[in-house]
Amino acid sequence: MTRKIDILDTTLRDGEQSPGCSMSPQEKTIVARELIRLGVDVIEAGFPVSSPNDFRAVSEVGSIAGDKAIVAAFSRAIEKDIDCAAEALKTAARPRIITGIGVSPTHMSDKLHMSEDEVVECTTKAVAHAKSLVDDVEFYAEDAGRADADFLVRVVQAAVDAGATVINIPDTTGFCLPEEYGALIAAVAECVKGIDDVKLAVHAHNDLGLATALALAGVRSGATQVECTINGLGERAGNTALEEIVMAIRMHGDELDAHTDIVTSELTRASRLVSRITGMSVQANKAIVGANAFAHSSGIHQDGVLKSRSTYEIIDPAEVGASGSDIILSARSGHAALRHRLQELGYTFEDQEFEGIYERFLEIADQKKEVYDEDLESIVQEFQRDVSAIYTLKALQIQCGDPLVPTAVATIIDENGETHVVSTTGTGPVDAAYKAIDKVVGIESDLQEFAVKAITRGIDAIGEVTVRITAQDGRVYNGRGADNDIIVSSAKAYINAVNRMIEASRARG
Ligand SMILES: [Zn+2]
Questions:
Q1: How many whole angstroms separate alpha carbon 404 and alpha carbon 422?
Q2: With 70 as the cut, is the pLDDT of residue 388 above it?
Q3: At what angle do helices 149-161 and 178-191 cross, to 10 degrees?
Q4: DSSP secondary-structure letter at 20?
Q5: Cα(208) to centroid of ligand 1, in Å?
Q6: 14 C-alpha vs ligand 1 centroid, how far in Å?
Q7: Taking 70 as the threshold, does the pLDDT of residue 327 lie above it?
Q8: Which H or E run includes 408?
Q9: The pTM is what?
Q10: DSSP secondary structure of 327-354
């Protein structure tokens, strides 16, 4: 049997640090359910001391994970961070505190203003304190990729001596070459006493497009935990993509002496879900989960694949769940069929909530006859967005055409249940609708990006709109909306982004 490599997914912590990708506690639990279906070993659910919402998210993920996954909370090597992480993890059956400190020259002198000795002392204190609160403690040596190897060994030794159960050697800035990084991991594996009794982890960033190569180099050098995110989401250029590292280990398990327990047929679904929730599209030529990952357009390639798939394709699309969903429901499907399918997708609802979803399902089924899993996911997310929203779009009427002046009449309900009806004109139907929303909300923002996509096949597919807005303080927010009518989708997406902007500013107080 090859070595089991643990997969720590940090989509909910490192991933959501991508500009515009912050998730509400409710959205995090939806992603966490998918991570459980994927079979990840550890879910890093958030950074509890950073905000009340993150605290709640960690607690909620802890309560749904049960014994199916370790739930981890991030902290700095500061007592109040660690206490807060422990508190948020009280709901978890298998809690892990992650704590750590910068170890590179620039982190120590420019950020921490600490000497080497002080960093070692701080490490010992933080790990020992975390260990007094939970059994499972992961220590990260931030910016290890640019650290002095001898000093790194010294810090890691202190963490191991203080009781750390996992040691993470991150290339926080995505600076290393894979062989250098591998050598660093090997140095720690060789020189630290007692390292055989702890798990060695790799965590790489994609600033040079090397994140997956770095993680693989680490695995080759003895790491048995890889930290990664769905779609490679994360700070700046992102993290190691879960789908890439998992499939690379799967294709080369014998050479690497490694395997993971990930259910690969869930990879495509997980990718789409995270993209939909964060509003961050996946590039078409993205490995494993991009729309073109299994598309062949040159005649020579098509001919080859038709004769034998293996001529130009190393992965069977079905292995990663990319073979497309089957038609599953129609307007004739009753309550029981819908409830059953939603359960299979991981959603359960109280009766009253379910009625709302069923009604929306019937509307969609009437319009487009065939309802796919993707449509169902979109209905559920739409519904959940509406429930927790500050502003919701009740109705939208648009007049446009040539030579008409585009005019929108929007009915918007605020969180107090008050109805606002506004009418505006614009340069086009979307502009008119957005101006109507602005009138009600009364907060200025700048529209940066606007994209329309069909969720499923066919001309009658649900059109999904993604927008990106910048608030006056420069922060970025994504929003999504789905409907058969793309102008309505556009308005919903904009309201969604505005709601996130308001929620975030309230959470900051
Ligand atoms: Zn990171």
A1: 19
A2: no
A3: 50
A4: B
A5: 14
A6: 5
A7: no
A8: strand 407-413
A9: 0.85
A10: P-B-TT--HHHHHHHHHHTT----HHHH
